[in-house]
């Protein structure tokens, strides 16, 4: 692991090492810290170059002004100054952030620290979230600093706090979310003490802003193994405070096991949906947050709609409609953007639409409506619907897969014939007004909807037939 790290660190931009020499010449310490060091030991060269220094923000700014082509001080109140050195000889731009050593003091009612600048690298490392992020490399000497044995934890794949976890999470409750996120990103286990502290202190996450919680949740979902992080959230009770619909899916299984464990089913659907994401040139490039949110949350209406039927059966009638409303409410509370909220809610509402197609009775009109209702979400809906089949019945799984293959083939044929993505009536608003001799108003909209419904049911009519249908409809209204 050390050899791997040395190999990666040797590939640091020469500009970064030059920056270290400038700080050294000015009598200051400079060290690469946090994620870039951790990633180096994992054999990855991080695009982020985060440094910490003994220099004050003013002293740092003066050095960066000489080193870079541009610099900024947006994070000055936290001791952070940033700079960019533009590309040289075909190499990419080098962007750095340099933060003065800190020893923060926290108000128990807030996660915002009173920033106090420190005077040692070891002290600065002690205030970081986990030991695997509390390692540093001094530059330009490339001397490794690991006061909390983060390298051992990295080798074991364990997330442990550099100080008592209760103190760490009390100081900054968002670190509990970061534990779940790193479990997903790094596929690491949260150590027993830290896990126990999260269980005890989960409700303290309430003082963290919804935006910060959202950002951590999104990073978790966009990681390589979101299931591991979601299990941390659910198993520690943290999800009860940030995404309560997730643990609510742990419905008791009836004694005859006639319905699935909805929680485990949802995690499996998420994994299957991720496997169906495409490369950068495909219709759903990996990682896709909308698809992943929809896969995770598509069944959250089931707890509200569960009914035990006569004979021991269980039903969840209209859970997709109820679920769409719950999705919208939760994502809005987490401050997701409007487009994401609408897309995930719509996919939740549509995820059962396919069922019933397998008997082969769908008309062309039904296929057109399926495509039109999905709109730009069609490719995601394809993947969500396919992923939602988690049955262990091999024959049933094969039948559903073949049915969906057939549906996609029909969509492709109709799309080629009719340009389904942009279905419009055979007459536009201007033509409708001219034929009926009316001006803009509700009647035009009603006529447009009537012709669109005919187009969906019967396919392209042609202008003459559409004109006849419009006049007949208008005559019935007049009568």
Automatic annotation (TrEMBL):
SUPFAM superfamilies: Nucleotidyltransferase, Poly A polymerase C-terminal region-like. Its cofactor is Mg(2+). Keywords: Coiled coil, Magnesium, Metal-binding, Nucleotide-binding, Nucleotidyltransferase, Transferase, tRNA processing. Residues 397-424 form a coiled coil. The keyword NADP does not apply. It is an enzyme of class 2 (transferase). The keyword Plastid does not apply. Its EC number is 2.7.7.72. InterPro entries: Bact_CCA-adding_enz_type3_sf (IPR050264), HD/PDEase_dom (IPR003607), HD_domain (IPR006674), HDIG_dom (IPR006675), NT_sf (IPR043519), PolA_pol_head_dom (IPR002646), PolyA_RNA-bd (IPR032828), tRNA_adenylyltransferase (IPR014065). GO terms for molecular function: CCA tRNA nucleotidyltransferase activity. Residues 262-403 form the HD domain. NCBIfam families: HDIG, tRNA_CCA_actino. This is CCA tRNA nucleotidyltransferase. It comes from Cellulomonas alba.
């Amino acid at each position: 692991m050390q050899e791997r790290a040395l190999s990666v660190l040797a590939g640091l931009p020469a500009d970064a090492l030059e920056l270290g020499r400038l700080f050294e010449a000015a009598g200051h310490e400079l060290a690469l810290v946090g994620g870039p060091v951790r990633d180096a030991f994992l054999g990855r060269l991080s695009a982020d170059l985060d440094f910490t220094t003994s220099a004050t923000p003013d002293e740092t700014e003066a050095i960066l002004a000489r080193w870079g082509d541009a610099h900024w001080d947006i994070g000055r109140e936290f001791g952070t100054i940033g700079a960019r050195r533009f590309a040289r000889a075909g190499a990419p731009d080098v962007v750095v952030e340099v933060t003065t050593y800190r020893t923060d003091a926290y108000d128990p009612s807030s996660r915002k620290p009173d920033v106090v600048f420190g005077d040692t690298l070891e002290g600065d490392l002690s205030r970081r979230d986990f030991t695997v992020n509390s390692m540093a490399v001094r530059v330009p000497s490339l001397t490794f600093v690991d006061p909390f044995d983060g390298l051992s934890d990295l080798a074991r794949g364990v997330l442990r706090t550099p100080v008592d976890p209760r103190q760490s999470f009390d100081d900054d409750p968002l670190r509990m979310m970061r534990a779940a996120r790193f479990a997903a990103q790094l596929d690491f286990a949260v150590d027993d003490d830290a896990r126990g502290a999260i269980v005890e202190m989960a409700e303290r996450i309430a003082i963290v802003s919804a935006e910060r919680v959202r950002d951590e949740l999104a990073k978790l979902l966009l990681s390589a193994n979101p299931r591991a992080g979601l299990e941390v959230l659910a198993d520690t009770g943290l999800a009860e405070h940030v995404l309560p619909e997730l643990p609510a899916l742990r419905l008791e299984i009836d004694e005859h096991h006639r319905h699935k464990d909805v929680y485990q089913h949802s995690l499996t659907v998420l994994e299957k949906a991720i496997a169906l994401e495409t490369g950068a040139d495909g219709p759903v490039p990996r990682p896709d947050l909308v698809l992943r949110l929809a896969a995770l949350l598509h069944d959250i209406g089931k707890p509200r709609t569960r009914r035990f039927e006569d004979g021991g059966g269980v039903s969840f009638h209209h859970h997709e409609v109820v679920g769409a409303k719950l999705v919208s409410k939760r994502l809005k509370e987490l401050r997701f953007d409007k487009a994401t909220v609408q897309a995930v809610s719509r996919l939740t509402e549509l995820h059962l639409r396919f069922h019933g197609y397998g008997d082969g009775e769908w008309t062309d009109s039904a296929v057109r409506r399926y495509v039109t209702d999905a709109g730009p979400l069609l490719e995601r809906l394809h993947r969500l619907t396919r992923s939602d089949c988690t049955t262990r019945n091999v024959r049933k799984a094969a039948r559903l897969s073949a049915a969906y293959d057939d549906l996609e083939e029909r969509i492709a044929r109709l799309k080629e014939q009719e340009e389904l993505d942009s279905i419009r009536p055979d007459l536009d608003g201007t033509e409708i007004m001219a034929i009926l001799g009316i001006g803009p108003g509700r009647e035009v909209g009603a006529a447009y909807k009537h012709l669109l419904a005919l187009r969906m049911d019967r396919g392209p009519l042609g202008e003459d037939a559409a004109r006849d249908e419009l006049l007949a409809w208008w005559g019935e209204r007049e009568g």
